[in-house]
Specification:
The complex is a heterodimer of chains A (about 140) and B (about 550). Chain A is α/β, with parallel strands linked by helices and about 140 residues long. Chain A has one domain: 3-Layer(aba) Sandwich (Rossmann fold), CATH 3.40.50. Helices cover about 40% and strands about 20% of the residues of chain A. Chain A has a 5-stranded parallel sheet, with helices on both faces. The radius of gyration of chain A is 14 Å and the shape is globular. In chain B, helix 11 runs parallel beside helix 13, helix 11 crosses helix 15 and helix 19 runs antiparallel to helix 20. In chain B, the strands form 2 sheets. Chain B has a 5-stranded parallel sheet with strand order 1-10-9-8-7. Chain B has a 5-stranded parallel sheet with strand order 2-3-4-5-6, covered by helices on one side. Classes of the chains: A alpha/beta (about 140), B alpha/beta (about 550). At the A-B interface, helix 1 and helix 3 of A face helix 3 and helix 17 of B.
């Protein structure tokens, strides 16, 4: 058996939200933890994020949303992944997301939401425990 | 290091009873190390009051821009508000005015900030969420309905499409029968900090500067009481900068605007006094006060010595302060009321002209009416109960505050020297310099929080097992539907040919170099949308693409 390859994570901003302090910290923490990180940059549409995720064969998509548009954007990304036959890509994220919205996002297929105050250690540990390299043909 | 610095830690055998220090880092929230004690010696041999401080109201304004400060007039209590539709925000505005607020401050939603309409594909899910949605003059009319524009001053936090929104405000004034010369207020209109920190842009930096100088020229002639730019450190700090970086990058942005105005042929003494600033006030009380005092002194020197401004009003750095949104915690949210109080007090002791106090629930959602009221009451308690307004610059002459003010000034000047060497702020932004410095600082700080070297009460220490949750403001999907259908109505009832011809004239002004404001005003009068106006100039100016710096 060969060594498991490094995790590939797409770290992104969807929608018009320009708050990129958190996403950059998380992206750096992932890189420091030894993951491969593809950062989308700002103002991406869900379509572009999903297209990039598929092109780059990532294992997970990590989205940061502080604009309040999470109830539209997360489900839209998951819907597009399903349409592209890539629903095994793990989707998780964080931002200013009220607690009462989290069950709905989880029901839509988001695996985890990190709210303000989460530490990078906590996020990295969660990724190690929950994201596995996808089988890619 | 001063002679008062003791080697640390000293906690084993040695003497006890007050001479042992705790084993922690004594640093500011930005990481500046602080000595045990400050004395006259920390100010240096050549330090003299006349040169470093001056009198309040006199060069270099370290002690404040007015001789009487808050004995003459309190700061303007200006709470930033905006959400949902124009009529919802209009109700909040009128509520705040009834509660004793003295100026308005408008938050726009993300699509508006990016110059996009509510029916734009990328606007899905964002309409009316982080601020009010404004597509056309029809929305702006509703936003200021029953608010007499000659009697309030209005601040508008808008940057990339600032000229279009300003034109809409002028058109509303026209309809209310208020002369432009009677309008007072502030446009944020600070595009450089968008590339650095807030990231809501349309065009690249250089054409964006041209729009700004057009606006400065137009306002100097027609709307003389309007503050045309609010040069903003706030967002730079929120993006994770240190206090020194906030100060340095903000003043460097200011230098770029002044230079652009002079290069466009404007008289520095005509436009410079309409520039104002906007700073963050974070938790580290003395660091913030020192930053604000240093800012005034530095700007006065730049304006007089670098740009040869002669009017003392051009030397004065006037500023708005907002408490630090990024310091608020979602955990134990009522603790934020205390944070905001400390930060607001720092802004006041730093000599602010106006103040926004954050609401305690802002790490959870947009503020509720109750939370906004407590935030405003915090200012009223500071102003009318605490007694801090009774004398000017009560901390002036404190060895510590003066030493810290000098140090922050020195470090900020060093940054500005490096930016000057690169060819100024636009060139520095193009090579990603401030962006990288901020990303590094913000990552460093997060590591310190994660490993416990910096404490955030309720987050990495003193956690609670169960917490009471405040009632939050919710904005449902109906806002977006409502706004889209309003836009549709406007679009179907206006004269499309008239709109098109005003947009064509705007694009021609873009290429010819004529001032953009008059054709923009015609376009908004014809009910052209923010998106249409913004797109009309894209063929001439291009669209900005960020090279992401991680």
């Amino acid at each position: 058996m060969s060594e498991p390859r490094r995790l590939r994570l797409l770290v992104g901003k969807v929608g018009l939200d320009g708050h990129d302090r958190g996403v950059k910290i998380v992206a750096r923490a992932f890189r420091d933890a030894g993951f491969e990180v593809i950062y989308t940059g700002l103002h991406q549409s869900p379509e572009v994020v999903v297209e990039t995720a598929i092109q780059e064969d990532v294992d997970a998509i990590s989205l940061s949303i502080l604009s309040g548009a999470h109830n539209y954007l997360f489900p839209r990304v998951l819907e597009l992944l399903r349409e592209r036959g890539a629903s095994d890509v793990v989707v998780f994220g964080g931002g200013i997301i009220p607690e009462e919205d989290i069950p709905g996002l989880c029901a839509a297929g988001v695996l985890q939401i990190f709210t303000p105050g989460s530490s990078t250690t906590e996020i990295v540990t969660w990724v190690r425990d929950h994201v596995r390299p996808r089988a890619i043909d | 290091m001063s002679r008062h610095d003791d080697p640390r830690p000293r906690r084993s055998c040695g003497p006890t009873g007050g001479s042992v220090e705790r084993d922690v880092e004594f640093t500011t929230v930005s990481g500046l190390s602080i000595d045990r004690l400050y004395t006259r010696d920390d100010l240096g041999a050549g330090w003299n009051d006349a040169e470093r401080l001056g009198e309040p109201g006199e060069f270099p304004f370290t002690r404040g821009i007015h001789p009487t400060m808050y004995r003459g007039r309190l700061w303007t209590m200006r709470q930033f508000a905006g959400f949902g539709t124009a009529s919802a925000t209009n109700r909040r505005f009128r509520y705040l005015l009834e509660q004793g607020q003295t100026g308005l401050s408008t938050a726009f939603d993300l699509p508006t900030l990016m110059g996009r309409d509510s029916d734009d594909d990328l606007a899905r899910g964002e309409v009316g969420r982080e601020g009010v949605a404004i597509d056309t003059l029809a929305d702006m009319e509703l936003l200021f309905e029953r608010i007499p524009l000659d009697r309030v001053s209005t601040s508008m936090t808008i940057n990339a499409p600032a000229a279009a929104l300003f034109a809409m405000y002028l058109a509303v004034a026209e309809r209310q029968g208020v002369a432009f010369a009677k309008l007072s207020g502030t446009l944020q209109n600070d595009i450089l900090k968008e590339y650095i920190a807030q990231k809501e842009w349309i065009y690249p930096p250089r054409p964006s500067l041209r729009i700004i100088t057009d606006l400065m020229a137009y306002a100097a002639e027609h709307v003389p009481r309007w503050n045309t730019i609010s040069i903003s450190g706030y967002h730079i700090r929120e993006a994770g900068s240190t206090a020194v970086q906030e100060l340095a990058f903000t003043l460097a942005d200011g230098l770029a605007y002044v230079q652009a105005g002079i290069d466009a042929g404007l008289d520095v003494d005509v436009f410079a006094r309409r520039l104002s600033f906007f700073f963050n006030s974070h938790n580290d009380f003395f660091e913030e006060i020192a930053k604000l005092r240093a800012a005034r002194r530095m700007w006065a020197h730049f304006m007089r010595d670098r740009f040869a401004a002669r009017d003392p009003r051009s030397w004065m750095l006037r500023f708005h302060t907002q408490t630090a949104g990024c310091s608020l915690t979602a955990q134990q949210p009522y603790n934020n009321i205390v944070r905001v109080t400390i930060q607001a007090l720092a802004g006041v002791l730093g000599g602010t002209q106006s103040l926004h106090t954050d609401s305690f629930d802002e790490a959870l959602a947009l503020p509720s009416d109750d939370a906004v009221t407590i935030a405003l009451r915090t200012q009223q308690i500071l102003a009318e109960e605490s007694g801090v307004v009774n004398t000017v610059d009560p901390l002036g002459g404190s060895y510590f505050v003066e030493a810290l003010t000098d140090r922050i000034e020195r470090e900020a000047l060093e940054y500005i020297r490096r930016i000057d060497e690169m060819g100024g702020m636009v060139a520095a932004i193009e090579r990603g310099f401030p962006q990288k410095e901020i990303a590094d600082a913000s990552y460093r700080y997060q590591r310190e929080v994660d490993d416990g070297r910096k404490t955030i009460v309720g987050v990495n220490r003193y956690r609670a097992t169960s917490e009471s949750r405040p009632e939050l403001l919710r904005i449902g999907p109906e806002t977006e539907r409502e706004q889209r259908s309003r836009l549709h109505e406007v679009k179907t009832s206006r004269d499309d040919a008239a709109v098109q011809s005003t947009l064509d004239r705007l694009a021609r002004a873009g290429s010819s170099g004529a001032n953009l404001l008059p054709p923009m005003l015609d376009a908004v009068r014809a009910y052209a949308t923010v998106g249409e106006i913004s797109r009309a100039l894209v063929p001439v100016f291009g669209r900005y693409q960020e090279t992401s710096v991680l």
